[in-house]
Amino acid sequence: MSVLEIKELVAGYDERVLLRNLSFFVPEPAFVAIIGHNGSGKSTLLKTLTGQVPYQGQILVQGKPLAKRAGAIARSLSYLPQKNQVSFPIKVRELVVMGLFRQKRLLDHYTSADYGRAEAMLDRLHISHLSQRTFTDLSGGEQQLVWLAQLMLQDAPIALLDEPTQQLDVYHKKRVFDLMDAWVREEQKTVLCITHDLLNLLPMEGYLLNISQPSPTLEKISPETVLAQQRFLEEKATSAVQR
Ligand SMILES: Nc1ncnc2c1ncn2[C@@H]1O[C@H](COP(=O)(O)OP(=O)(O)OP(=O)(O)O)[C@@H](O)[C@H]1O
Fold this sequence. Notes:
Rossmann fold; transport; 2 domains; 6-stranded mixed sheet; 4-stranded antiparallel sheet; 6 helices; ATP binding; binds adenosine-5'-triphosphate; globular
């Protein structure tokens, strides 16, 4: 059974089609970097997979068609949007433990074992020192790492990440890519990750999907393919506006 299969996907907003006849197939757990110019439709693809954008065509998640109703998110998917905001003061550990919501019933409380798992995840991301801090007081990069801890705690087989390294310094960028790599290899997760950090992809194993290409397809990551796509993106400005 394939992890994810997309056939002749057409999606966009009102009169504006951003994804045209997109087809790709992820046969087994893998890391997939989604790249492309600003406005090319990368976030739109992840929003389509999480039921936020209407589409035509077929999306099979672990062999099952994705529900077409608005806001539907398959149980097998976790999603970290580009902008994720919290407007009330909440402790980091409280926000991270919420990653276990799929395993809880509505009014269940989080147990000390649940908090233990949240702390272990913070430790894995090397941010245990943030556990008792108020989330809204953290820097943008620290907040991004906390969201990542929450997402990893969800433990879904397929993770959709929209620019998870956007605000991170070079050390933390590398760390997050290493974590994604380990996650795929050691826990057989599939990670679809939107990124503009092409050079961080060089040591990764997995695939590239360049949404700015006229007919995007999955391409194996290698130094040659990463650098060729980087040159393509540097030379051709094919943003949605110009299409
Ligand atoms: N809800 C919406 N209604 C109408 N147009 C939208 C909506 N959301 C996004 N768009 C437009 O669709 C286009 C693609 O947006 P999208 O966020 O998918 O691009 P992206 O490739 O993720 O870009 P970036 O690299 O800048 O994050 C943009 O021009 C954007 O303005």
